[in-house]
Write a structure and sequence with these properties.
The protein is of the alpha/beta class. The chain is built from three helices and seven strands, in the order βαβαβββββα. 14% of the residues are buried.
Length: 138
Amino acid sequence: MAIFTSIRVNDDISQGMSTFYAELLRIKSMIEYSQKKLPMLICIDEIFKGTNEEDRLLGAKEAIKRLTNERSITLVTTHDFELCYMSSKNDTPIYNAHFQEYYEDEKIKFDYQLREGRCTTTNAKYLLKLTGILIDEE
């Protein structure tokens, strides 16, 4: 089984390559390999995080559809809830799973128990308040 990742992708200023473009090239290589119809394990962390929401969602939806098939195990992390309602174009099932956070001593913690479905909580506001960036909600 071939293993492909797009995790901790960085820009390369000496090559004039942005983080987003570096990720595009990685995902392009995944899509090209998938056309060989061989088994793959694909791990993508925060898909297309280096661009705006509209372009990120458009690209992520297409990439996920093209990488979801009966020969591949495709794992994608995202903070974009909209991606949690996708279906594949070839009827291969897409499942959602999440981790849940809890708070202890003014710190965020995770039990790392994988739960079925899309997450139903958010933690950014809590962390913004905890760090003093968000004083009052409007």
